[in-house]
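G.,

No rush on this.
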Amino acid sequence: MQFLTNYFTMQSMKPLQWVCVLAGSVFIGWSHAHTDEIPVVLGIVLILSTILGLIFPAKPWLAALLLGAPLFIVETLVHFSLVHAPYPPSIGLPWPALTGFVPAFGGSFFGSAVRNLNKEAKPAR
């Protein structure tokens, strides 16, 4: 009976995972477009990716990709003057904004690893 309960709980959490990750991505993009403090935005990326890695440890790479991408997307939109930001646009394409993937992957995999450490270890035979 416990197996069925776990199965249905996990099936009902899949839409919640997408909502959480996409809401986090939108928040990261919005905060990046409204501040010129890069360390603050990278800290937000790290904190959100760690939390989502803890809550949804099955696919940390997917959460990291979706949480790291808004930095580069917003920087590109600022470069082409499609989004107004409180800082001047870059001269070329903003390749340094890809460094946003570092805290996203680090936090997401750290959260997933911490969550998986809590599982019971199988006794040695």
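When you get to it, here's the other one too:
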Amino acid sequence: MPIMAWRWRRATVRALVAVVTATASAGCGGAPRDATPVPPVSAGAAPFVLAPDKPSGLFLETLQAEPPARDRLVVYAEPGRSDPLTGRVLALTRQTDRNGELPEGSRTVPIRRFGKGHLGRQGDFAWIGWNGTAREGEDPPHYGVIGKGLTERELRSAADAVDKEHLRIARSGRPAGLRPFAEAPMAISNGDVRFGAGTTQVWSRGPDAWLAVRTLRGDARVESLARVMTFGGPVRIRGSAGTAGTVVFPAGTSGR
């Protein structure tokens, strides 16, 4: 049962994830198209677990079931690796939540098909995020490509090759050697990253000191996907493979 625990202070997200294996809009004319199947990852609700090692002074504030995530994450990696994040990784996400942006980038870069995006870096990871076109009466979707071990040119080529209809990166924009790894429900809202459906506890001692813990059922690939979104490194959590990372989201974000 994956256990996700993360803590925000101001605009910083700290994420811990442990995994235990348990039983669009249409593209414009001339846009790349790619309907390559990607192995799906499912993550569903699981019984909640009260945190036995919670920091002293925290009190249980809320306990609630989360709805299934509506948006998606697609990941490409080098085949044959037991841990895909030891090699190069490329990911694509589309978010419909108005607060679903990727972390704030350090500078603006041109994207041939979509205008301009924001490039950011953290450790071995880099990303480009941009806003899509809004349908009447709706907020614009947020798109992003995330890479580990990739150059800025490779990220920009990937962004130019996004097939919005199928939510894929066409072969023309994927670095050589990367193959479809996994696709999963994934949602971002105010820096909160979640996969599938789960149960969330919030422990707090005021607005500036609190801890959120999410439990869900899935397989070991959920941990790899979480590391893509937290820019994290591998750790052991309660004897299981997990990740720890820190993500700085745009100034002014809030929420849990």
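The helical segments are 152-160, 221-230. The CA atoms of residues 111 and 160 lie 6 Å apart.

Enjoy the weekend,
O.
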